[in-house]
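User: Can you fold this complex?
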Amino acid sequence: MSARVTIVDYGLGNLHSVANALTHLGAQVDYAEDGKAIANAERLILPGVGAFADGMRNLTERGQVQALRAFAASGRPFIGICLGMQLLFDESDEFGTHAGLGIIPGRVERIPAAGVKVPHVGWNRVQPARAEAWDGSLLSSTPAGTFAYFVHSFAAKPRDAAHLLAVAAYGAHRLTAAVSMGSVTGFQYHPEKSGAAGLAMLRAFLVAPSPLEVP
Amino acid sequence: MSTSPVPSAPAATPFVRTSPLRVIPRLDIKAPNLVKGIRLEGLRVIGDPADHAQRYFEQGADELMYQDIVASLYGRNSLTELVRKTAERIFIPLTVGGGIRSVTDIQALLRAGADKVCLNTAAVARPELISEAASTFGSQCVVVAIETIRQPSGAWKAFTDNGREHTGLDAYDWARRVVDLGAGELLLTSVDRDGTKKGFDLEFIKRLAATVGVPVVAHGGAGSAAHVAEVANLGVDGVAIASWLHYKHGTVGELKQGLASAGVEVRP
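Assistant: Here's the predicted assembly.
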């Protein structure tokens, strides 16, 4: 049986990279262009490349905001990638302050350029935010220190440390690399561009238990 | 993603590697074939590009680079379909260059699955293309190739069309300018080293890597892990390798082992 995954299409970025990786792993992929398709999803991915404000505006215009919040509360597996992860938070400072989806408490702030290049582009090591942070998460079979591929200028700051799943050292910064809250996981890096290690993280998402599936 | 259109330019500081050296197989394409020349001339057919891309991905490449080597002659990039096919089975960043003249051309390649585009000829003809691309897509996806040939006078001049056309520009000044215009990465191709396997043009690369505020990828002349280690220690972020891999002197994995033994951090 192959997993069915719905990718949120909100008119930003390249959805196909994520879809290609999921298809390669044997999943059936479809796209949600409105709120109803999100409500009916079994597993959901919010991808994204672009600016935070454009993302929220497009999600609002397509009637997807409430559906995303309801999906997150339903216990079904949900991941946000890159901008899609940042949108899970309360607000962002990118080009003015903009409200986000408010699913995970916290904000998104610009990486201070002190001593490092911004954007943070390239391969970096992903480390557990604390001992046992990865137990039971989508990273449970990922070795600490695995390299993942990052492209971003802004970074999330979860208000509750319990939601911080993984970090990446960048100069003197300790950047949020992944977050999780119940069935919702956010990756700042691109698992679909992170080679075999990234594919393994997506595979974990495909087999994560979903309350929709009857044993 | 959220990136700024213009990269910050930190003051020059002693080189400390903040990320592993990227090993980037470079595939020159003369559709439908993977080809390789010496000093970008005398092209020989190597084989099927997609098969080679797949093999290098499986060997642990950190990124791949496709260059349509005749595109500027015909005024168009013919790699869209190859990019689409590659993106379906290769899950690392992909950079595509050759014959890219406009924001529309860039958009088509990014939509097909490219993560970055590499500009040269069109950027020399119309430098504003660099700023347009950076403000539309973010500087992180705009790579500018600086093709150099060292002159008898000792200066390095910039070339286009895979080393065929003289621009009259000083390569060092041109490189600084493209960074100011918004290029997020530089690909330094030493035309007179390309395909020779005699080692990189260390002097030019050192001068640039130490002074520009964006990642630098060295290309042209890799003939051994020792050559690559040598250029890595100058502060480059990545190395583009063609002949050495295509002619099977070794695999990406073997190269990375050699680099690790030489003390260069690589992604395992």
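Chain B has one domain: 22-261. Chain B touches chain A through 36 residues (CB under 8 Å).
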